[in-house]
């Protein structure tokens, strides 16, 4: 017979927490009614919403895939990494068939080369200035074009040579000739620098726009409730303040006025996307879900402070980039590669965390002027021209 809890005990259990009419849910509802007009910010993996309270319609801003330049910059950032994945594919293949004409890595490399060639052909100053038109990167179009062309040209050459010299697609060869070349004259700008630079360029726009958007709301940060909801990046990433850069971004945008204890991360909570927003009734229901989740979490904190006044209380102090290697100079290549390794090797980290603290702090310290941000691997770098084959 399947075990069932004793009915009397189960009734007591539900009376406190799990029943819709439980004491815990009733307290949460009282808190919701008290703070019905308090602003609520909800950040998901790609969008951020402000629910002003008192039934007013939400304001929503996007910061990832649907925004200008994000796909373009991220695609270029991924190109060098794709070669490293190809090397791993080759390494794992059976030795007898590893370099056969129909090997999976050769086919994938050939397809990657087609995509890179198309990007190189499409890339132009006019494209970046008139079509992609990222406001925060205005004036950088010529250099952006040079970065993309250089990355594609170098990668295409490596892919082409690897088809004839498969041993170039080993990690030793890629490190010494592509990612961190021993001969700087052979490859003046390492691909490590390129990956870091493109991460930084994409994140500058996110911080610039979302920071401006949040400050324009003129919020009472002492009453604002903040929820970082749902999945951010990898399924294992972004579950703490130190590993989810939206926490640091929102806190700095508030001028550090947001009490850190009013920001909760709920990786398993519902998410939303601008591309698939519910109707007005659906948004209202989603807001109620978020408010209930926030208040239900807060209830335990408030009760603990009243229940245990003689014990030292817990005070959360934010750490923006826990354990992230520091920069000794603006173009410290050891720090660049150390941060890239950290965000790839630590499953708890969002990939953008390799640049997040640098970009967020610079923008908020300089009055949100993206032109004054120093981006390692970009700002002080000249990308040489490489003639097409």
Automatic annotation (TrEMBL):
What is the protein's given name?
DUF5624 domain-containing protein
Give the species. Answer: Paraburkholderia megapolitana
> Where do the DUF5624 domain residues begin and end?
67-202
In Pfam terms, one family for this protein is DUF5624
Q: What InterPro entries does the record tag this protein with?
A: DUF5624
